[in-house]
Amino acid sequence: MKRILFVDDEPNVLNGLRRMLRPMCKEWVMEFAESGESALNVLAAAPFDVVVTDMRMPGMDGADLLAKVAELYPQTIRIVLSGQSSEESIFRCVGVAHQFLSKPCDAERLRRTISRACALRDSLSEATLQGLISQTVRLPSLPSAYLELLAELRSPESGVRKIAEIVSRDVGMTAKVLHLVNSAFFGMHQQVTDVERAVAILGMSTISGLVLSCKIFSQISLQTMQVFSIEALVKHSVEVGAMTRAIAATGGIKQPELDDCFSGGVLHDVGKLVLASNMPAQYLDAQAKAQTNQIPLWMVEREMFGATHAEVGAYLLGLWGLPDSVVEAVAYHHTPDRCIHKEFCLLTAVHVADILEQEANCTRQSVPRAILAKGYLHKIGVWDRLDEWRSICGIVERKAA
Fold this sequence. Notes:
- This protein folds into three domains: 2-122, Response regulator (Rossmann fold); 140-219, no CATH class; 223-400, Hypothetical protein af1432 (Orthogonal Bundle), CATH 1.10.3210.
- Helix content is 59%, strand content 7%.
- It is built from 22 helices and seven strands.
- α7 packs antiparallel against α8 and α19 crosses α20.
């Protein structure tokens, strides 16, 4: 049974949630609190899987409450459900909330959002990693990309296209921008995975405020840089994004789904950023063990941490509300045969692009690379297309260079 705590200072709102959700969510234990202070008392008495709170409340407001929840109960999923969508409220929530939903919210959408977040957390059985990911509100970026973005935002000639170009060349920036634009605060009725469109929707004023005031992007720490090459990760990820889109196009996937393909490729290794930036010493040990024993890194991660970077990345992106197709591709890009879908899809393209990029740049590898899932590719009838894809990806790589 999942335990969900709803917090709102208006009793009629809480009564409405109670009436809407109880008939359709009998597998939940639901509690209701009318203030941030009373919510903390409820949380102190028993653990909860999810806290859903309004923003504007007297005394302790929603942002302050979620900051306390993040500090005291790091494994708890934090969701804002609010009718307040001003720029100020967005800025205050961005560092503490996993997802943002607007009032009035359809009961089915609320149920689906909470259920999906819980299912993703359950897929990651290691409690330490659950807490670590739950506390992740920003991802480190390339120092050069971060400084370039700051300079561009301060330039009087700054524009959406240039900002999007910088963001799309960085894994952490791409993930966070897509997280923000897919929140309900921006009134989108469909999910967005194209970075340029995301920047245009957010607007230059919001982007500037988020970067300069809220610091949603951060430079990677010196300690992490000493054990992990973010430059190599970004180069690999951007090339895999381009290759994924090229491979997907050969399988009949068209716009706007091709935007999912590029983003899925760019974000496939985002879990490495989470692990390396939060556990630098342990991640250095994992890389050394993979190199010494000639074992793919993801296998060593599972042994040492109880989960792979693929699962860690998928959990974070799912918490942040990115599309299911992207989350699925990230989760299974090393083990596509574990996915329930057995046809050519985004996952297929990401899996193949990841391996082909490593083949093409084998001198850049410090640990043994993963291998193609031959049985899976045979099962979905595309194994004989590898030479075609190698040729296409060689062209893509030369263009990217």
